[in-house]
Amino acid sequence: FLNFPHRLVAPRWLLVIPVIFVPWLLADLLQLAPDLDLGLRVPIVLMLAVTIGCAALQWRRSAGDPHALAALRWVALTTILGSGLFIAAVVMTRLLGWLPPLDQSVAFGFLVLIYAGIALGLSRVRLFDLDRWSFRILLWVGGTLMLLAFDVILVLSLRLAPAVSLGLSVLVVGLLYLPLRNLLWDRIVDRRRLADDALFQGVLQVAFATSGDERVRAWHALLQRMFEPLEIVPIDDPGPAGALPRLRGEGVALQLPAAASSAPIELRYPWHGRKLFGTAQLRLATQVVALMQHADASRHAFERGVAQERQRVARDLHDDLGARLLTGLSQPSLRDTRRIIREAIAEMRSVVTGLDGGGRDLGSCLGQLRHETALRLENAGVELDWPLLDDAEGLQVDDRLCRNFGSMLRELVSNALRHADARRLSVSLALIDGWLFARICDDGVGGATAGGPDRRGLHNLRQRVDELGGRLDIRDAIPGTLVEIALPLSRRSEAASVDAGRNPRG
Question: What is the rounded CA–CA span in Å between residue 413 and residue 332?
Fold first, then answer.
């Protein structure tokens, strides 16, 4: 301990040890000492005391060096514990005369701890776990020694029978020591700066911060509260995608993958450099990172939902409200214009509130669309051919189907009026095997719908069809343009929809 883990004295000063103790032991061998206690047992006990003092000096010298402290803690514990138990069982018992000594052939087993501790400490195997191992041994041995000491006190002071004394000792130690041991373990080894509820609240606050920079700052602040590292630095090699937290530098650093809008980072020198990261901290970091990534995914899903809702509102305003206002502008009388405007206001309310999820009668929905389309085309001088579909009466479908199909039809009618220069528009509908098939054809110039100037409208058409799991086909006809739409009456995946539906011809 004068040389490990740091050199405390110059090598020449190590000669003081044999200069003092070798003559003392020689005096015992030559029978110059007055008795065996003074000649042999006292110097052995004194050696143990000097050893403990040197270890204490090393502890003070190693402050701020977590690697050295971890190795010193383990080597000092096993060395002092092994030799201390041997001396207590063989030397101290004879020196004090309280209890009969343990046979040396048995007591030599305590010295195995010394060699095991030195081997592990010098080889630095799992250095970051030596803290936990050393405290486990210390608490176990402490409980055993407390039990034996209390048993000896009861036997010697109260003169109790050995069985009664041992029973009382087990009872007292169990009631006093075990809760104390758990308290010491939580305070010294499994130190957690944050309770579970505070940790969960902190993760949510980080995940739902208003901006990426704020999330990064809050994430680093949370890690600072958890582990108190001296440094938090970005790393260039984050490892493979989806990598888990990992220990680096024998526990001096903990690498964390990307989370909370932060790049992969490395925490260095936990608890202000007093300890190393261990497997307990690694497990905690893994759980917190997984929780944070789950919260990030929830936030991303929320943000995607907000963006999709904004797109829906913009698309519906463009398709539905725009079509109605265009119809109102072409009305010959103020009365009809006001009626169309009132319908546009009602449509705007439906768009803003996002009424969906309920059921609607498909026949009523198609009837309203037919009437609206006929009115628009009549005012524009365009003929409509739309046979009635009796099979749709009383058929309940999702409101999303009615709303999206109506928006698509309005967009197609608007394109035909603005770009196709059509004089006739045909709409045919069919219900086959749970699918709604629609064919919309005009006799215009052709290419107006597929490649006209209103490309945003075409994008909205395809997006609406994709949301419902249907199919859309737009191609030139002779004359005009033909649009075929296939929509499932019930919600299903797009892949299943493509496999299940058949598009009728003719």
Answer: 19
The tens digit of pLDDT for each residue in 231-275 reads 899 987 655 555 788 888 778 889 998 888 888 999 988 888 777
Which neighbouring-strand residues pair with 473? 484
pLDDT at 502 over 50: no
Residue 493 is predicted with a pLDDT of 36
Q: Rounded CA gap, 349 and 328, in Å?
A: 18
Q: Cα–Cα distance between 289 and 282 in angstroms, integer?
A: 10
Q: What is the pLDDT of residue 494?
A: 38
Q: E strands of 230-339, at which residues?
A: 231-234, 246-248, 253-256, 265-268
436-463 confidence digits (pLDDT tens): 999 999 888 876 444 454 545 677 788 8
| Dist CA 20 CA 15 (whole Å) | 9
Lowest mean pLDDT among 105-109, 223-227, 279-283, 357-361: 357-361
Cis peptide before 5 (omega within 30 of 0): yes
- CA dihedral (88, 93, 95, 97) in degrees, to 10, reads 160
CA torsion, ordered 33, 35, 37, 38, to nearest 10 deg: -30
Helix (H) or strand (E) holding 431: strand 424-432
End-to-end CA distance of the chain: 97
The C-alpha angle 38, 40, 44, rounded to 5 degrees, equals: 105
Strands (E), 433-506: 435-442, 471-476, 481-488
Among candidate residues 455, 454, 442, 440, the one with its CA nearest the CA of residue 380? 442
Least confident of 53-57, 149-153, 368-372: 149-153
Is the CB of residue 27 less than 8 Å from the CB of residue 237? Answer: no
Q: What is the DSSP string of 14-78?
A: GGHHHHHHHHHHHHHHTT-SSSHIIIIIHHHHHHHHHHHHHHHHHHHHTTT-HHHHHHHHHHHHH
- Here the tokens at position 476 are 């030139």
Task: Give me the sheet containing 253-256, strands edge to edge.
Answer: 231-234, 265-268, 253-256, 246-248
Q: Cα–Cα distances in Å, from 388 out to 368, 371, 429, 504?
A: 12, 11, 8, 18
Q: Around Cβ 3, how many Cβ atoms within 10 Å?
A: 12
- List Cβ neighbours of 307 (8 Å cut-off, separation of 6 or more): none
Q: At what angle do helices 399-415 and 322-329 cross, to 10 degrees?
A: 50
Taking a C-beta distance cutoff of 8 angstroms, is the pair 504, 437 a contact? yes
